[in-house]
Here is the input.
Amino acid sequence: MNFILKSLSGWSAEEAAALDTLLDNRHVPLPQAASVSEWEALRPSLLETFETNVYGRKLPRPDEVIFTDITPRMYGAFMAGHAVRRRVEVKAKRNGLEASFPFELAIPANADAPVPVFVCLNFDPGVLNAYQPTEEIIDNGFATAGFCAPDVVSDDGDFTNGLAPLYYGPDDLAEDGYPKAADAAGKIGLWALAASLVLDYLETVPQIDASKAAVIGHSRMGKTALWAGVLDPRFFAVISNDSGCGGASISRGKRGETIGKITTRFPYWFCRNYQRFADHESEAPFDQHMLLALIAPRLLLVGSAERDLWADPEAEELSLYAASKVYALYRRADADRPLFHYHLRHGDHYLSRHDWHVYMDFLKDH
Ligand code: GTR
Here is the structure.
């Protein structure tokens, strides 16, 4: 059975007209740039808009970062000898404090040349988990490096654990436990920093081609992958799987989850300012297609699932369509190789093997 309903890197004139009508009806503000230089002049203020109003300020790098190979001896030959599995501890120091988190790598064992790599923002520890079919990824010639988000900092309103105290001391936290400053980074900002620290390490691994690193995440980690990709231009490709509200989906006219709903249940993923746009999407000086456009001209992949109405597949496609107007400014000589891709899969909210194969097939062409 073919699980992929749509797989595209462009829209027909008819589809584009229908999507333009939707953008108009929802009063989605489009970046006013007619050339790359005009767009690049706009870019810094747009980035600042997302820092101030959505995810919080980019966190400075720690003063010192130490990587230690902590691979248990039992890992030995992995995947019948096809891969090497490694566990690394990242120790970060700042303001006289330190915090650490582990991540795991799987690298093809016998590659002739350095391989591209996925930086996987995971919900579970280790290289074997439901959203990461590591054996297939290895067989397709990619390495993976993944951390478990709660190992970096807990997925809740507690800002006193993991990397958080390096950035927020007791005086920086309000009574509700969140950072006082309305533009201070929330959990997505802390996880995005961790993705960049993992990439620092990958740059030192001879078997890995870190110039071909794709950051990938599902759902809340898809939102994080987008933000990590925007903040760290070293990511060659950015992959959002079912990231929905506060991720790839346009907020104006969105079905399912809205800014009001997400900031009620998960305020701590974002900065406080984001709450101001609950039920006031139309007043926001941003919408999520602008976040996608900030990734241009790097590779951008957006995946949706048909029954994932909470994330709203239509709002995800519409957002990529709007961002594609910025990608179009960068049309290159090798324009036969598209810079972005959208797919819609049958089924529910999940990062499935089908999604992975769409992503891997696209990346293999670059
Ligand atoms: C949901 C949340 C979504 C999405 C999802 C997930 O409950 O409303 O925005 O992030 O969690 O991360 O699985």
